[in-house]
Amino acid sequence: MTDPTASQTVAALVERKGAGVVALAVLRSYWKPVTTIASALIAFGVFLNKFDTVIEGQKAENDAIRIISVRLQAVETQQAVMTQKQSDEEARWQAVTTAADIVVTPRKRH
After folding, report:
1. Cα(45)–Cα(39) distance, rounded to whole angstroms?
2. What confidence tens digit (pLDDT) does each residue in 59-87 have?
3. Is the pTM higher than 0.85?
4. Residue 46: inside a domain, yes or no?
């Protein structure tokens, strides 16, 4: 005759004693590994939650960087326009000062 398997032994115990008593007996015997695994799962869940928070924070920072980049491009465009206007104005003033340097000498009549 062969020995019963573990599942057959547990099934026989459940029939004789009841599922609650067997569950408590198993828990009493294996409480350390059960609590270790449970605490590891909880810690992993907390880690994943914090990791998700970090990812959301990174997304917000990336969005802020994009906004700053767009604003910087707008400022650079405005600066280029102002530089061009300043160059045009300097060219006008140069033309005015060049024209003001013209010396008119009267012609002598004989």
Report:
1. 10
2. 999 999 999 999 999 999 999 999 999 99
3. no
4. yes
Q: Which two tokens stand for residue 33?
A: 């590994």
What is the total count of domains within the chain? 1
Give residue 64's Cα distance to chain centre.
Answer: 10
Residue found by looking up tokens 């869940």 in the block: 45
Tokens 């009841």, residue located: 18
